[in-house]
Design brief:
Mean pLDDT: 94
Number of strands: 14
Number of helices: 19
Structural class: alpha/beta
Helix content: 40-55%
Shape: globular
Strand order of the largest sheet: 1-5-6-10-12-11
Radius of gyration: 23 Å
Low-confidence stretches: 3-12
């Protein structure tokens, strides 16, 4: 776990370890986080194998913790920060790093305790005080919301009165045709969004209510049939990168009755054009309900949306009410799709236990926020690993599963392979586990920092052999990622 190095040193050279740590710091500064983790791990292994330890050994773990956070491996980050604190309970940066991991996992009360340790030790530190104050506000806000919530009240969707909403005379954006999405509407919507225009709230609410009504009738596991001569496209995470979404359509064609798509979760958050992404996708879902599919990702949830920008973006562009309606809609998104009963597609991955069948997936109750364990949690959060068996998740949620787990699952369910998303890949995709587990990630240069390519997969019905198309990021208006994120997120970066 945590990239432990297997190099055998009879006598660890602490000076050499310190040089490796400094080299890791250089990689970190250059945003080469995987390389930084590798060098931190080697430096740690040298020190661990020695009877003597450097005086700043806790910093090795704290630094690697921060690097893990940058790669979204928050479980590993939490472990490393805790180790740093164990090595030196007075090492305040360890508490900082652990608070960062806790915040990223939505464990706000735990984060607040660590910030409190720092503030007590450094009462005049503005940075520490700022993070403590923001975290405390969030904890109090959540407690207040919980206190005033009343069970069995009407849902947001039941309280919205679309008929009372007037469309102003100076509105120049697209309009629904008698309340329906048309191809002309979608083309005009894309044009409006490309030019940084806005969809009127009356049309936006109508789309959300119609999508919710449709999704409520769908199963948790949707079966898709592709004809022998039909092409089918699977896309991974988009994460609010609207102009890269448009690039997919330019490369591969707009969705249509003859050009079907499946978008595999994480449509929103981090990127600051998430509203544009989700309304474009939901519009195509209504236009081509049997040819356009959407799976739920781990970021279609209240905690992630609150932290990583979608909630703030919806509030900025529309209202709190609409942000709450999105939560209701996301709860009904299917968790998985099965193509020709041979390829299973879900956002995260496989399970923390054996013998899970497609029938078990069909029976998952999904109209809720993602739980922290169980089948639904695993499907949204898990990741593959190279080693056999299972390991605790690097993210702190879900599980890591090996090639033997994948092999057993596909054989039990008579599948050819699985497709999942959820992880940045340098080339936009990765074939693992003897090509039985394929990852596709469609947000190039993720967060404007990662330098990765994006990719999508095309399949043909007669063989279902995956074909990968990769692409680089396109330019977008000067709006930074995470612009609408919780203020603490930007303080942590």
């Amino acid at each position: 776990m945590n990239g432990e190095c297997k190099l055998d040193y009879r006598e660890a050279d602490i000076t050499h370890a310190e040089r490796m740590k400094e080299e890791a710091n250089v990689h970190f500064s250059a945003k080469r986080y995987a390389d930084a983790i590798d060098f931190y791990s080697k430096a740690i292994a040298m020190c661990e194998s020695s009877s003597t330890k450097p005086h700043n050994f806790a910093a090795y773990y704290a630094n690697r913790s921060f690097a893990h956070s940058k790669t979204e491996a928050y479980g590993y980050a939490l472990d490393d920060a805790t180790k740093a604190i164990q090595l030196d309970p007075k090492y305040l940066k360890g508490y900082y790093r652990r608070a960062t991991a806790y915040m990223s996992l939505g464990k706000f009360k735990e984060a607040l305790k660590d910030y409190e340790v720092v503030v007590k030790a450094l009462p005049n530190d503005k940075d520490a005080k700022g993070k403590y104050t923001e975290c405390n506000k969030l904890v109090k806000r959540l407690a207040f919301e919980k206190a005033i919530s009343v069970e069995d009240t009407k849902s947001v969707s039941e309280q919205i009165d679309i008929e009372s909403m007037n469309i102003e005379s100076d509105y120049t954006g697209p309009c629904l045709d008698d309340g329906k999405v048309t191809l002309e509407f979608m083309k005009e919507l894309i044009k409006t969004y490309r030019e940084q225009g806005k969809l009127h709230k009356k049309h936006a609410y109508k789309i959300l209510l119609d999508v919710k009504k449709y999704l409520e009738k769908q199963p948790t596991l949707v079966h898709i049939h592709i004809k022998p001569d039909e092409k089918f496209t699977v896309c991974g995470d988009i994460h609010g990168q609207y102009y890269d979404l448009l690039n997919i359509f330019e490369l591969n064609g707009l969705p249509s009755e003859t050009n079907p798509y499946l978008f595999n979760g994480d449509f929103v958050d981090r990127g600051s054009f998430s509203v544009e992404c989700i309304f474009t996708l939901f519009g195509f879902k209504l236009l081509f309900p049997d040819k356009f599919f959407m799976s739920r990702g781990n970021h279609e949830s209240v905690t992630m949306n609150r932290m990583y920008g979608f909630e703030g973006e919806v509030k900025s562009k529309y209202s709190v009410e609409m942000a709450n309606l999105f939560t209701e809609v996301y709860n009904w998104l299917p968790l998985a799709h099965c193509i020709n009963r041979r390829v299973l597609v879900m956002h995260g991955g496989l399970f923390s236990k054996d013998n899970v069948t497609l029938k078990d997936i069909e029976n998952i109750y999904r109209n809720r926020q993602p739980p922290e364990e169980g089948l639904m949690c695993d499907m949204l959060w898990s990741d593959p690993q190279d080693a056999p068996g299972r390991s605790p998740s690097k993210r702190g949620v879900g599980v890591q599963f090996g090639p033997d787990v994948t092999k057993t699952f596909v054989e039990l369910n008579n599948l050819d392979y699985i497709i999942r998303s959820h992880e940045v890949k340098a080339n936009g995709y990765e074939e693992a586990h003897d090509s039985k587990c394929i990852t596709v990630f469609s947000a190039p240069n993720y967060c404007d920092t990662m330098g990765n390519k994006g990719a999508f997969i095309t399949l043909e019905g007669h063989c279902l052999k995956p074909k990968f198309t990769t692409y680089t990021a396109v330019s977008h208006p000067p709006v930074k990622p995470l612009m609408y994120a919780n203020s603490l997120v930007n303080l942590l970066c």
